[in-house]
């Protein structure tokens, strides 16, 4: 019935508007007062960066959409994980919607006729635009409330910690270990993890010694790589002066710590109540300073034959207990992130000395933001010292950097993977078979931590010129489709990796993240939500979940994303609208992967 086909679109979604009009739907446009209020609320949102996190993705401070136009805000929960906040995918830029083709004013006239009617379908870029109390049961909205539990870094970190209690699944197999620094227990757990990782890394570095020759890390120049070769992240080595000698007990201490840790792992229960090997009499300050010299300053290690065998044996046995031992590398790189941020604001980044070389990069990306570091004291100092207005004290997370990752033509990339939830009770999840890769602008290196090398987000990379050292085979628009990636894997002799390793791994990670947060989401029949999950790929082609965005950008940055973003919007409408009346209709590239 025509009276059931009134829609509202808020945000940069011309494709959605066009597709709904083609179906015979009538748009209830925001009146001029409403548009002014929307702009005013956008200005207020910018001011709220000083006190509230970004990407709440379904917070509770919603606005009342009333038939007379305009909006009346009301207060909601003050739960720290449930702030009302427009998802940050679109936040940095002022998007201008494409002008609609309406030469005869027909759409404007139809919109005027339904100006006092509530829309039956709402597609908006943040949940504040709707009031669920005014919606009828059959009205459709493209967001759920309280999805912060898995669409913020802090929320995802906390939810996945609880996963072993909910499912027989280990988050360490798909999510780089993560700690909330604002919590005393987790800060202590991070310090312990950093120390243990340093001890394991020292053993790895020791085993890489050629004879007793002192070594230091050095990235292989891009020109030395063979055409078509898979560029992995493990650094090469070159000789370097040993400098002042290391204290002779260094290797023995690392071996002893790893032995104790192995004993703990073999008897550890889910409560983690076993005493830590980090509470031994070892002088950790001295040990870490010496480890830094070996890992980052070129100090040499001298191993006996017996010690080499012990290192090999211990690392082999630890690998059986630690799913992340392979991906964690040997330089102990960690990422410090604002817990409620998204879209990589300052991510993976650049240490403070690099900010003077950013050229035209906006100040928002020059702020400390998200930072990569290799030293424990820096993490703790940065977490205490950052005063970014958008971040509240204590809302920082620190996460292990995936050092052993797959690169393409010597360049880091990640995968943006879409999925839709159409129900939470029972949980119903649809996976999109098409996705795209995002490349960095500069060649990958663990010895240099600039954003241009380590953060793949388009919203960040667009500010950087392609490095002259970049392999010319990296696409100029820094985007690939999954089909292009599959062709590349086939050239590497890994033709089956996409369907046998990557896709099953991404599906499992998404489902585990959703199940871990399921009880916290604000469920409503008739709603749905399209999400964008970001994955890194390990050198073994295993996907590692980084984050989930509640409002993935639909703004095309390349020919690939122009096609794929249009397709996923088309198929989402097929899934949530057309399928209601015709269960056998085409839903494009979506496939049902889970229904309770």
UniProtKB/TrEMBL annotation:
This protein's record includes keyword Ribonucleoprotein: no
Sequence ranges of Acidic residues compositional bias: 88-103
Record's GO cellular component terms: axoneme; microtubule cytoskeleton
Biased segments, Basic and acidic residues type: 37-46
Keywords recorded for this protein, A-Z: ATP-binding, Cell projection, Cilium, Cytoplasm, Cytoskeleton, Flagellum, Ligase, Nucleotide-binding
Listed Gene3D superfamilies: ATP-grasp fold, B domain (3.30.470.20)
Subcellular localization, as worded in the UniProt entry: Cytoplasm, Cytoskeleton, Flagellum axoneme
Chain intervals for the UniProt region annotation (Disordered): 33-104, 213-244
GO biological process: cilium assembly; cilium movement
InterPro entries in alphabetical order: TTL/TTLL_fam (IPR004344), TTLL_monoglycylase (IPR051437)
One Pfam family recorded for the sequence: TTL
GO molecular function: ATP binding; protein-glycine ligase activity, initiating
Catalysed reaction equations from the record: L-glutamyl-[protein] + glycine + ATP = glycyl-L-glutamyl-[protein] + ADP + phosphate + H(+)
Protein name: TTLL3 monoglycylase
């Amino acid at each position: 019935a025509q009276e059931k086909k009134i829609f509202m679109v808020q945000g940069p979604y011309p494709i959605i508007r066009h597709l709904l009009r083609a179906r015979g739907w009538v748009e209830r446009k925001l009146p001029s007062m409403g548009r002014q209020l929307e702009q005013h609320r956008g200005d207020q949102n910018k001011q709220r960066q000083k006190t509230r996190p970004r990407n709440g993705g379904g917070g509770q401070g919603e606005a009342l959409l009333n038939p007379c136009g305009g909006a009346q805000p009301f207060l909601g929960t003050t739960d720290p994980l449930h702030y009302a906040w427009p998802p940050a995918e679109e936040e940095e830029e002022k998007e201008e919607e494409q002008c609609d083709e309406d030469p005869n004013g027909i759409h404007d006239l139809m919109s005027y006729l339904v100006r006092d009617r509530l829309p039956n379908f709402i597609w908006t870029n943040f949940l504040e635009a709707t009031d669920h109390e005014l919606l009828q049961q059959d009205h459709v909205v493209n967001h759920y409330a309280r999805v912060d539990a898995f669409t913020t870094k802090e929320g995802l970190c906390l939810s996945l910690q609880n996963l072993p209690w909910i499912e027989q699944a280990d988050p360490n197999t798909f999510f780089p270990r993560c700690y909330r620094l604002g919590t005393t227990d987790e800060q202590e757990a991070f310090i312990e993890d950093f120390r243990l990782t340093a001890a394991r890394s020292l053993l790895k570095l020791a085993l890489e010694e050629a004879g007793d020759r002192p070594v230091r890390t050095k990235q292989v120049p891009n020109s030395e790589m063979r055409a078509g070769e898979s560029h992995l992240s493990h650094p090469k080595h070159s000789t370097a002066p040993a400098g002042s000698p290391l204290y002779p007990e260094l290797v023995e201490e690392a071996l002893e710590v790893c032995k104790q840790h192995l004993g703990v792992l073999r008897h550890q229960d889910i409560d983690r109540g076993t005493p830590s090997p980090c509470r031994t009499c070892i002088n950790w300050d001295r040990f870490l300073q010496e480890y830094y010299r070996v890992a980052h300053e070129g100090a040499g290690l001298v191993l006996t034959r017996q010690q080499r065998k012990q290192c090999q044996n211990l690392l082999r046995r630890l690998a059986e207990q630690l799913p992340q031992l392979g991906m964690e590398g040997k330089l102990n790189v960690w990422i410090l992130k604002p817990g409620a941020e998204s879209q990589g604001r300052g991510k993976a980044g650049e240490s403070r000395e690099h900010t003077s070389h950013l050229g035209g990069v906006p100040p928002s990306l020059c702020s400390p933001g998200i930072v990569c570091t290799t030293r424990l004291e820096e993490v703790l100092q940065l977490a205490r010292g950052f005063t970014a207005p958008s971040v509240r004290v204590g809302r920082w997370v620190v996460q292990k950097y995936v050092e052993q990752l797959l690169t393409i033509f010597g360049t880091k990339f990640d995968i943006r993977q879409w999925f839709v939830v159409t129900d939470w009770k029972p949980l119903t999840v649809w996976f999109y078979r098409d996705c795209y890769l995002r490349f960095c602008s500069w060649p990958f290196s663990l010895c240099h931590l600039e954003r241009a090398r380590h953060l793949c987000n388009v919203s960040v990379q667009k500010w950087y010129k392609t490095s002259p050292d970049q392999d010319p085979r990296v696409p100029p628009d820094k985007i690939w489709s999954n089909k292009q990636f599959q062709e590349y894997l086939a050239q590497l002799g890994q033709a089956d990796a996409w369907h046998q390793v990557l896709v099953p791994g991404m599906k499992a990670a998404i489902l585990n993240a959703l199940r871990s947060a399921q009880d916290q989401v604000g469920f409503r029949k008739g709603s749905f939500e399209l999400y964008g999950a970001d994955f890194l790929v390990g050198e073994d082609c295993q996907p590692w979940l980084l984050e989930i965005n509640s409002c993935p950008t639909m703004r095309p940055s390349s020919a690939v994303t122009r096609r794929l973003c249009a397709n996923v919007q088309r198929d989402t409408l097929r899934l949530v609208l057309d399928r209601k009346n015709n269960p056998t209709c085409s839903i494009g590239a979506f496939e049902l992967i889970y229904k309770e």
